[in-house]
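Throughout our pipeline, every protein is held as a single compact record rather than as scattered files. Nothing more is needed to write down the fold, since each code stands for a local backbone conformation. For reference, a complete record is included directly beneath this paragraph.
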Amino acid sequence: MLKDSKAFSSFSVNDLQKARDFYSRTLGLDVREDSMGLNLRIGGADAVFIYPKPDHVPATFTVLNFVVSNVDESVAQLTSKGVRFEQYNLPEFKTDAKGIARGNGGPTIAWFKDPAGNIISVIENRR
């Protein structure tokens, strides 16, 4: 029934202008605004919709993953633009000083937050 339907992801923010600046200026994405919110054009298509919500509460999980060829390079570039990467120091899961998780039984990945506190990642393509 839905296999031929076009789908998109969405999440909320508390300040649409801060989100627009972050996603367009800091992350360098093609951001288009309409009367309901922001459309992030990723890979040439409207893949993500961001909408304002006055009582926004950040998700406690990753809302958006960017597949990159090299996490170290992406972290360095984003850090130079002021992005702060999350640090985790759990017994079963740790990040290094740059905020990159390596060899934890999963992919090489690093997490950061947008101005609304939503969790985003850069994750290394394993191919």
